[in-house]
Amino acid sequence: MRPLAIVLVALGACSGESITVVTPPPIGAGAESLVLAIEAGSLFEVHALRVVDGKVDPAKFPIKLARPVDTDTRVRIEALSFARSLESLGLTEGLNAASTSTRSQAFPEAEVQRFELVVGGVATGWKPTDERSTRLEAFRIELPRNGCVDFTIRRENFSGAGRLSFAVEIEPDLALIGSYNDALFTLTPSRVTRLTTNLASIYESAFVSAPGLVWLGAFGNMQRARFRPELTIEKTVFTASGGPVFWISGSPSGADDDIFSMTVDGIIEHYDGTTSRVVHQLPGGRGQIMEGGLAWVGPREAIAAWHADRGVVRVKYDDATAQWRVESEVVPDATAAFITAVYAPRFGPVVANSDGQFFTERDGSWVLLEGSPVRVFVFAVAAYRDGFVYGSAFGNFGQYSPADGFCELRMVTAGDIRDIAVLESGAIATVGPHTPEQAPSYTLLEPH
């Protein structure tokens, strides 16, 4: 087969003619990526190409340099083959700029082979070389973000719905969404359906204890409902305080005797399978809609975030004394009050505040997760893969991956994101906004 011609176009200042045409470098067995480091006088460029079945795509050529060089300029091309994808190297196909971020690394050594070709002076064709360009040694590339997910985004308004109150995955790839005017909806990646039910309560919160089984927070009570064959209330538990239940959280195992709830005015209760009892009253006023969060973190143990506290409140049952122990845990690096709390099974507890800071618990202390790209209220956090996703004021959506840190921030809707449901397929449904001045909407993010 005739060898593919790679055309390196270096335009002369006047002539406009290409000055060099070369055959491709040898590509070793197992190579997935090819990098061409091109030096021509003061110009230095790094081009990355995919290798498929031992070949590069001929449609990617000719390669045109970013600016003209003189036709008599000496050009050196260093070709490096790698047994990894471009993404895993932190490169994109085509021309790559040097990274200046703190998440950069030195350019790696060739994994398969390295060749060089010199045009101008002595031209001998491609030859193996151990010489590495000093410019390439200084070239920094972004650390690959293999844990960050890219999503397609679709936003829709709800028809005939009031303020949206919650979103949870009730069954695999099926979200249950509640609204303040007692309407309930189901959402799949393909459609939204308004449920026809005989339920008369207004539900402010929800916790799925098992597929098809959900606890709903209402005014003065919690209700356990079964989704199939139709949404039916099986049990009603009246709270001791009688206030509207804005947050519910329980064990991922589905146990019905370890459910925490918190009212709009900061009263935390625990349901032990028989009775719901008050275990703590958070400060900061009663009878007002406040920002906060509640998360089960272990057997008969929960953490609470509250608009009036820069610390994290922990409630835990002490078997030795048969009493509830309440601790207000100081978070020294926090610059604002905490308003969101969640337990991510594969990551741990996460709290977030109104300054866009995120903290997790490590060895008994709350540790700041560095690099948050938001500086506004974080209203919603949900477990996702081995990290979490979050939504904030002004429609910002982001992801945190332990391997990569905070991923790129996206604005996915015009209003606030108030709750997030993560579906089994990896799709994500966000709901908002929270105010009657804006039409309630959902945003579906699907990984690709």
Description of the structure:
The protein has 448 residues and is mostly beta strands. It has 2 domains: 137 residues, no CATH class; 297 residues, YVTN repeat-like/Quinoprotein amine dehydrogenase (Methylamine Dehydrogenase, Chain H, 7 Propeller). It is 2% helix and 48% strand. It has 2 helices and 41 strands. The strands form 10 sheets. Strands 3, 4, 5, 7, 8, 10 and 11 form a 7-stranded antiparallel beta sheet that branches. Strand 18 and strand 19 form a beta hairpin. It is elongated, with a radius of gyration of 29 Å. The chain starts with 5 loop residues before the first strand and ends with a strand. 38% of the residues are buried. The N terminus is likely disordered.
What attributes characterize this protein structure?
five-stranded antiparallel β-sheet, disordered N terminus, mainly beta, 41 strands, 448 residues, seven-stranded antiparallel β-sheet, Methylamine Dehydrogenase, Chain H, 2 helices
Low-confidence stretches: 1-5, 10-21
Mean pLDDT across the residues is: 86
Q: What radius of gyration results from the CA coordinates?
A: 29 Å
Name of the CATH first level of the largest domain: Mainly Beta
Structural class: mainly beta
* Major pleated sheet: 7 strands, antiparallel
Could you estimate the helical fraction of the residues in percent? under 10%
Q: How many strand units?
A: 41
CATH domain topology of the largest domain: Methylamine Dehydrogenase, Chain H
CATH superfamily of the largest domain: YVTN repeat-like/Quinoprotein amine dehydrogenase
Q: Based on CA inertia axes, which overall geometry fits? A: elongated
Report the CATH architecture of the largest domain: 7 Propeller
Strand content: over 45%
Q: Work out the helix count.
A: 2
Total domains, how many? Answer: 2
Q: Gap between N and C termini, in Å?
A: 36 Å
